[in-house]
Design a protein that fits this description.
The protein is an alpha/beta fold and 625 residues long. A hairpin with a 2-residue loop joins strand 9 and strand 10.
Length: 625
């Protein structure tokens, strides 16, 4: 294989035994460096861990690497455990962080860790997981960090180098192997310069058909069309349903491939597969998190076969999943960021735009931005595209489980850990003092609520330290012996309610009489916890339990078909599967908890068996792949 300059430089550092962080544009070829680390570790008979920010990416890497390394690959994501002792082990960063804190001895045989999308340390909700895993990285492990282009990559490397007292090499690549060319649709005209974006007295709506015709005439297919809303991906796809992008041979190929894949993944009788089929026959598809995971995989396979010519998708399609195209379209350049809508971050824009231009196939990639001047100004468009990518900033906010794990090891000296964080490395004294105050407040709450007594973790504390993200509410249920009193239905309902997050304005449809008592109990517990957190000025508050999927879970546990349980919820079918899988992960953490009774472990084992069937069974999906 002929390597590019930045790949050669990275590999040289790796061969010299150095940790490396690589910053390069999407599609530049960072995966080749990871593959070199994997092959080197296998040749030297040592282990390597590959972490990814989302389960979909972990699953894709498992499928990709299986082709090259077969039985030497394993995966561990909480709802999937295949070949968990393999020398090459793929896992989510959460699983790695938990291992680092809870069972570091299990990592002794692994010499390298690969952090895919290491800039995810900047993620508001989950960045702390990356930071904690890097702070407590075992001394014997080297790391390879793969990052999108970020301006403060050297700062990130300096921080890791400082806390571990060993060099971390930085390799930068700013040039894309396939250059991008930008176009803008505004007032239903396509222009190639931002300076041509001007308001018109007769403002015309941007027509989808006009844009697709423009792209098609210039041989711009295949095309990934990014949309910031699940329903809109489907609406736009059906708006295009009068088009047919396939010739007769291609149509026969895609029909056969779709039918074969639907049989393999047991989708033949699924209404969602039937709904998309007329689009598939025309070379059109949509893809979003609300779809069944198996149907999403079918769509991904059709796209990589190059038979899908236009796919409407949400932004997760851009996150590490290797699905390049000739053209990328942005439905708009604004999106919802947690609390408000704002123009796209430059880094997010290029994560998606970088899918344009297939290396070795295209001389250049094309990016089309649909612009409505009533929603975004030309200068904002310019900032999105031509600003420097945003710096990576720490989102440090230690979980209760982490505080308990640190207290168990360091007692009140756990505060000495904070100066090792990226947060401390990046911030001024005022922010540092606030971070320490928050840690101290969490420790006080844990002591006041009986997780810690006489300078040691109580059984309640030992239970809580192993259920990341849902520590306080689940530990209360444990302490009050509620779990022991629940049957499989109650355990399933508690688990799915702990993880469920309702959409904005989503209302509870119905709750059975049995679950109503559980709901009241959990809500009373949560109110008490929230009151304690408010008094100590702890933020954000611990997540509340939501019982929106309780009835669907009860029917699923009775053996009801998946298509039938959907009538008991207004949650998208793909989200139902995701939350059921997350419930399995929580149940496994409770089952594997050393303080759980053998009676509870057996009952949870049966609950997991009852939930983990058919479309919910993530391992089955991977094995079918």
């Amino acid at each position: 294989m002929i390597y590019d300059r930045f790949q050669q430089e990275s590999i040289a550092h790796i061969n010299n035994g150095h940790s490396v962080i690589v910053s390069a544009p999407t599609g530049a070829g960072k995966t080749a460096i990871a593959e070199h680390v994997i092959q080197t570790c296998l040749d030297q008979n040592v282990g390597v861990i590959y972490t990814a920010p989302i389960k979909a990416l972990s699953n894709q890497k498992f499928r990709d690497f299986q082709g090259n390394y077969s039985e030497k690959i394993g995966i561990l994501t909480g709802d999937v455990s295949i070949n968990a002792d393999a020398p090459v082990l793929i896992m989510t960063t959460e699983i790695f962080r938990n291992k680092v804190l809870d069972e570091p001895e299990s990592l002794k045989k692994y010499s390298w860790i690969i952090y895919d999308e290491i800039h995810y340390i900047d993620n508001y909700e989950r960045g702390t997981v990356w930071e904690e895993s890097l702070v407590f990285l075992p001394k014997h492990m080297n790391l390879l960090g793969l990052s999108a282009t970020i301006p403060n990559i050297k700062q990130l490397a300096n921080w890791i180098s400082t806390i571990h007292n060993k060099p971390v090499q930085v390799v930068l690549e700013e040039k894309r192997p396939v250059p991008l060319h930008f176009f803008f649709q505004c007032n239903n005209q396509v222009v190639d310069k931002i300076t041509h974006l001007r308001r018109s007295r007769e403002a015309k709506a941007n027509k989808l058909h006009g844009l697709i015709d423009y792209i098609r005439e210039r041989e711009g297919l295949p095309c990934i069309y990014f949309v910031f809303g699940r329903k809109r991906t489907e609406d736009l796809a059906f708006e295009l349903s009068t088009y047919n992008f396939l010739n007769k041979d291609e149509q026969q190929q895609i029909e056969k491939m779709f039918d074969d894949l639907c049989r393999r993944f047991e989708l033949t009788n699924e209404s969602s597969a039937s709904l998309i089929y007329p689009l598939i026959k025309r070379g059109i598809a949509y893809h979003h998190a609300g779809m069944l995971p198996t149907l999403k995989e079918v769509i991904e396979r059709l796209f990589t076969s190059r038979l899908i010519k236009v796919i409407f998708t949400t932004e997760t399609f851009a996150l590490g999943i290797n699905m390049p195209s000739r053209t990328v379209v942005f439905d708009e350049l604004r999106k919802y960021y947690g609390r408000f809508i704002r123009p796209l971050k430059t880094r997010d824009f290029y994560q998606m735009a970088g899918r344009a231009g297939r290396r070795g196939i295209d001389d250049e990639g094309f990016v089309y931005c649909r612009v409505n001047l009533n929603r975004i100004k030309p200068e904002e468009v310019k900032e999105v595209i031509y600003n420097m990518p945003e710096k990576v900033k720490s989102q440090f906010n230690t979980s209760y489980a982490t505080v308990l794990n640190l207290y168990e090891k360091y007692k009140d000296d756990l505060f000495n850990i904070y100066p090792l964080t990226l947060h401390y490395f990046q911030t001024k004294k005022k922010e540092q003092d606030e971070a320490l105050r928050l840690m101290n407040a969490k420790l006080k709450l844990l002591k006041d609520s009986g997780h810690i007594q006489n300078n040691s973790l109580t059984p309640k504390g030992r239970f809580a330290k192993a259920v990341y993200g849902y520590e306080l509410i689940l530990a209360e249920l444990y302490e009050q012996n509620i779990f022991e009193q629940l049957d499989e239905f109650g355990l399933g309902v508690i688990a799915v309610s702990a993880v469920f997050e309702p959409r904005k304005n989503q209302e509870l449809i119905n709750v059975s009489k049995k679950s109503r008592r559980l709901k009241q109990l959990c809500e009373e517990m949560h109110e008490k916890i929230k009151g304690q957190e408010a008094r100590l000025r702890i933020y954000p508050f611990s997540k509340a339990p939501y019982f929106n999927l309780s009835l669907a879970m009860e029917y699923w546990l009775q053996g009801t078909a998946f298509s039938k349980i959907l009538q008991f919820t207004d949650t998208d079918e793909g989200e139902v599967v995701r939350y059921f899988r997350m419930a399995i992960q929580i149940l496994r953490e409770i089952r594997d908890n050393p303080v759980s009774s053998s009676f509870l472990k057996d009952r949870i084992k049966e609950t997991i068996r009852m939930i983990n069937r058919d479309v919910v069974d993530a391992e089955k999906q991977l094995r079918e792949s």
